[in-house]
Amino acid sequence: MDKITINELYDLNETIAAELFEGKTYPWELLPEIKNFILKLGETLDESKFEKRGDDIWVAKSAKVAPTACLNGPLIIDEDAEVRHCAFIRGSAIVGKGAVVGNSTELKNVILFNKVQVPHYNYVGDSILGYKSHMGAGSITSNVKSDKKLVVVKGENLYETGLKKFGAMLGDNVEVGCGSILNPGSVIGRNVNIYPLSSVRGVVPANSIYKKASEVVTKVEE
Predict the structure, then answer these.
(1) Which residues are catalytic?
(2) Within its chain, how far is the Cα of 71 from the centroid?
């Protein structure tokens, strides 16, 4: 049975966006609502901890944002996050506490949980990345199918999402190897390791190692 519900993928104590997950079963159900949620949440943030930049950008005073980073709203950058040189945030993004958005990384319509790292040449669009997940240099989420059809999540069952744009759902503590592509509708379970240069699609079970589509092995407990 596919274990791809919100509760099976994420620790909701590790995101400022926990309220958005309420009443939903699968994480991709959030994608159309991220923008409006940020606009609503931003107005409630503690002014002693966050500063408002422009109409719809809220940046924690403890966050480090390079002067060369491009920030577009709606956007929340949480406490102690780091946005590095030439990062490009296109909007509708939540960057969690202690998260790192690196050089030449592009974000669009995403939630990064606390301590997420997308530090080098990453594209993350229409995706949710769980606590302490990490994308190696050059790894990306591909968020639109080449035939432009609606995305279907393919596991033991098929899940019609009704979405044209859907990148990847990464559970907590996922490690994505350098140069990998997460194809539209990928759902990666908790504690998964993806080999470098992988092309991933469908559901990858929790606590496994993805070597290639025909070789996904369960981790051995030490």
Answers:
(1) 120
(2) 17
